[in-house]
Design a protein that fits this description.
The chain has 21 helices and ten strands. The strands form three sheets. The protein has a five-stranded mixed β-sheet with strand order 1-2-5-4-3. The termini are far apart. A hairpin with a 5-residue loop joins strand 4 and strand 5. It folds into three domains: 185 residues, Hypothetical protein af1432 (Orthogonal Bundle), CATH 1.10.3210.10; 140 residues, 2-Layer Sandwich (Beta Polymerase, domain 2); 115 residues, Roll (Ubiquitin-like (UB roll)).
Length: 501
Amino acid sequence: MNDIKEIISLMQNPTDKDVALVKKAYEFAQKAHADHTRNNGEPYFNHVFATAKNIAELGMGATTIAAGFLHDSVEDMKVTPEEIEKEFGNEILFLVEGVTKLGKIRYQGTERHNESLRKLFVAMSQDIRVLIIKLCDRLHNMQTLEHIPKEKRLRIAKETLEIYAPLAYRLGIKKLQRDLEDLAFAYVYPEDFEKIKKILKKKKEEVEEHLDKFQKNLKKELAKGGVTKFSMDYRVKSLYSLYKKLQRFKGDVEAIYDISALRIIVPEIADCYKVLGIIHGSWRPLPERIKDYIASPKLNGYRSIHTTIFTGDGGIVEVQIRTEEMHKEAEYGIASHISYKEGLRKKTTNPNLLWLRSILPRKRSEDLGIPSKSTDVPTWIKELVEYQKEAGEDFIDDIKTDFFEERIFVFTPKGDVIDLPKDSSVIDFAYAIHTDIGGHMAGAKVNGKFVAISTTLQNGDRVEIETKKSAKPSQKWLEHCKTTMAKRKISQGLGNKHPNL
């Protein structure tokens, strides 16, 4: 148990130096936590080992894994920052301190909680690894939540569901998001959790009968079409994801076609479209169920082609087609692109993730150990950091609305993607582009047609804002906003004394 060889075996092509660093951190943490136990009486070292293992499973580098071993040393034990710096250097100290500062986040409407969240957003804007370590730490805490006193469980689970899982989603780390959501779901909504488990079991059995038959026929068609290099597997929808989808479909499970999906993984992008052509040449697709996330990736980096087809035997199956690189991105998101020894291990072909090069520290200050800041971090991270400077007492509720709710993606006339919460209006869109555009909006077109600025936007809409210098916001606009940011800017433009709504 807790054998360092297990973690080393998960590392990707580690050098001798990488292995030595991880072993050193392992031994240091073992010693630091020697007399330290958890609530259930087991050695505390089990937790830091599990955190480091979660980090290694994401494919992270030796520096991050080492910081995972050490992340509770300063907070919980009598280890000083100076000792960490002396033994492991200023880069690992920066990561450990970054996580330590976030260690006391509590899901309460207190100033202390708000302050901890603010530190989280600032730290992740400086070095995304701080957040990844925190997410891996939280995953193991959720896996052992039954040992926490009962009154604390709901608070921790709710915080996980409403803050940490959405952060994992927006980083594209599907593996972490799924696990965090399902673990928290069982505590936050226990009755619904049990109901969904039964529904999923029943539907999975039904759908997989069609999938098995379809898969055999599909292999034959692909061979006829000259596609021989591919792999296939099933994806079953997670419990919490199905729960959310059932809410949208008012409990009608028959309207949900992607409870189980067949994934086809091919070598090249061109193969994805070839496979799609073969499928559509043999089976009829459902109208409006073809989604090309390769041509238009999601903002969290997700790429794949989705199509839903009639199998011919009364079944309906969703098929997802992607390359190996896309598959890795879909599971591990940002983590699949990061190598922490020397910036990026390789250049990503995904344009949505090019900002990573600029937020990973190439060279740190020898004195401060702080990563170089960048202007090219993702818009939503920059917005979070700016947002928290202005936000008032309702900060937590505001960020859940503006950053963590279900998203839609709307296009500018130039084809740039604007990421907004679902049910946002043209007004929200205008203010998301720039305060001046929102404040001087005189009209708008959606998909080439003039519309009222109160119009609610749909995923994929193309929006054009018309402005006039003389135009000003109206009090009535506040009724048609979804985002707190737009409400705040309108309120400020109206000269209200209390812009924090």
